[in-house]
Amino acid sequence: MRRCKFGILAAVLAIVAGGCGGGGTFANKPRPPTPVNLTVYIDNSRVSVSPASVGAGLVVFIVTNSADKTESLNIVNRDGAGIGTTGPINPQATAQVTVDFRDPGEYVVSTGASGATEAQQHQRIEIRPARIHIGNQRPSSSNQLLQP
Fold first, then answer.
1. Can you list the domains of the chain with their CATH numbers?
2. How far from each other are the two terminal CA atoms of the chain, in whole angstroms?
């Protein structure tokens, strides 16, 4: 009697286990490229970006304002359209902005007059913008360990 129950139980478990996980398809889409960090340094005379050239994909700008006044960072494409900006960054403070670059080309990284009155905007000393080059799409991060 026990052997019969055990045999029936084993047969039922085999049927149930055989039906699990079958028949479905999985769309194995590649992951996006790993985000790249670019450091941006603002002082009283210029904006500098390092590195100045990366492949297309998600880019995180980590900005340090070493200028004497509050500044904001603007990222502009070749058509003059803004694609990323920070809020006001106080002197000796940092900020961060993330941009998903899809099109290769040249982009301008410049400062804006955040929090300044109209009179202060007319009196401000011009800070030279930086240029960055965005190349072709970076490879997928599908085969990299410890990625989200």
1. 36-137 (2.60.40.420)
2. 53
